[in-house]
């Protein structure tokens, strides 16, 4: 065998093998590699999108929590204000009621004082009449001396 013929035969076989590989083997391999690279890129894009959506969702949840906290704080403050207003209203009503009771008691006491003075005047007038009776040793007519008794009452 000739070395040149072997070398040329090997080159021809290599070229046929190269052509066959490039025509039938290489395109499915490159297609599979491209599909795999595309899937990996899509997965990475989806992961980035999911991270972004997660960050947005966390931000939205945090904003809602802050808003809820603010609303709860407002409601608590309003409830406290209403409670204080109710307490103040109850205090003012109690004070007004106490003032009314005190005024009624003062009016009643004044009326009782007036009644006691009148009763005392009548007793003093009666005692004066009895005293005068004993001094004069005779009975003094109350009708005759009504003017005297009324003057005595007014002086007392």
Overall 3D geometry?
rod-shaped
Strand fraction band?
under 5%
Number of strands: 0
Assembly state of the chains shown: single chain
Mean of all residue-level pLDDT scores: 87
Distance between the termini: 172 Å
Helix percent band: over 70%
Order of helices and strands: HH
| Unreliable spans | none
Q: Evaluate the radius of gyration.
A: 61 Å
Structural class: mainly alpha
Per DSSP, the total helix count is 2
- Biggest beta sheet attributes: none
What attributes characterize this protein structure?
mainly alpha, 156 residues
Descriptive overview:
By secondary structure, this protein is mainly alpha-helical. It is built from 2 helices and no strands. Helix 1 (3-136) packs across helix 2 (146-155). The protein is rod-shaped, with a radius of gyration of 61 Å. The termini are far apart. The mean pLDDT is 87.
